[in-house]
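Q: How would the structure tokens look for this protein?
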Amino acid sequence: MINALGVCASASIVCGGIILLLSLRRKHANPKTSFMMAFINICLHPFRVFQIGLLKEPIALEKAMKDAMSETKLSDFGDMNFVENYKKVSEFPFFKSLNFTNLGLVLGKLELSAGLFTRRLLLVDYFKQGLPLESIPVETPLFVVGIGRSGTTFIHRLLSLDTEYVRSPILWELVSPVPGVKGEYNEETRAEFEKDRKKRADTTRMQIHYRNSLGDETMDHLHEYDSDIPEECIVAMSDELPLSSCFLYNCFSHMTDFVKSISSSRIVAAYRTYKRILQLLSYQVGEGLNSSSPPKRWVVKSPIHSFFMKELLEVFPDAKFVWPHRNPQRCLSSHCSLMRGLHLMNYERDCLDLSTIGQCMLRENQHMISKCQPVVESLPPERCAHVMYDDLIGDPIDTVRQIYAHFGWKYTPQYEEKMKQYLAQDKAKREAVKASFKSSGGQRKALNQHNLEEFGLSPSDMDTSVYHSYKQRFKLNRLKL
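A: Here is the predicted structure in token form.
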């Protein structure tokens, strides 16, 4: 008996040592991956080898849908074209060439079944109640568009601070927009709706906290996200388009191919679904139910809109736009860095090809400009406020003041004070990050360090008619990189 226990103890020590060494090796191969994530991936490996549990098979849309139906006891997904949209991307050779990490595969499956498909089932079911949801106006929403990494997130965050008049959907609302409360919103049920919103917010905060507790630094300084700050429209639009995090890398890097593979009507359907979500978010706080409680102006953002301006305007015909402009050379290298981060969040490093990322983003940024610019320039000038990146970074408050003047909106001292507080907090946060770099003895890179060359690109690759015309139109050759 004692000998058996000794053998078991020795075997446990050996196994533990092997797992520790493999975890350290994995961590060393990808320094921005935390030891915890490396450790979990190693521990999950036997489950993938022996096809156990969530690691039994690759991501399967039908299986995720069945799991969502089982969990919610619902079966109506509405228009099923969204399944074909996801299948289009999953059939790309590029998607098939990628290898999910063990943790990435588990999280991807959970995101589809417990997140996207569950949300869609609940949304379709909620609208069956016959409530006056679709009569709630979404008037003159403001869309922040443009090339990714051109300051779109920064300007969106600033514009969202004018909470007296505007509203931006925050992350937890987009992740969990459907109330658990059935029936009409009124004075008698308001407290119940508020309690339900708090419950959903707390659940999302817990999920985000768990994800952050894994300590992954892959997306640090690339895109700030938190359950209680404004987030991109892609979270809600993933109900129709393959933009969930486990598909986003593939879809965004091959958007040209994806758009060619589907009809424009499917893009319009995605915007109609998004509009319904905005209406539902207004309804559950009592906005837009009557003339005495008009809905606030929605301020939303995603570079994805730049691909689909015609479809966007079909659903939101009175939309206004803010378009930040930055030298596309700097945008491109930063965008490539973001895509590298998205890859490493979900996939193994051995299938990461930086040159492929470079070529994909070179093509997609050009496609984005060619789709967005003609539509914007066909609109009356007062419909779009153009913002220069250098002006935005140099004097963000004056930039916002000019946007408000352009649209004829009321600009208040209270709003300006909120921006000053936000900018001070953001500066302090960045200074703290820089200090942590210095204290690490130079072991960590500076904030979002990147260049074209590491992605197999050079400035001459951008000598195309689209890029040249764009830079000339907005005088971007004179701006700093």
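The two ends are 71 Å apart (CA to CA).

Residues 118 and 196 are 17 Å apart (CA to CA).

Upvote if useful.
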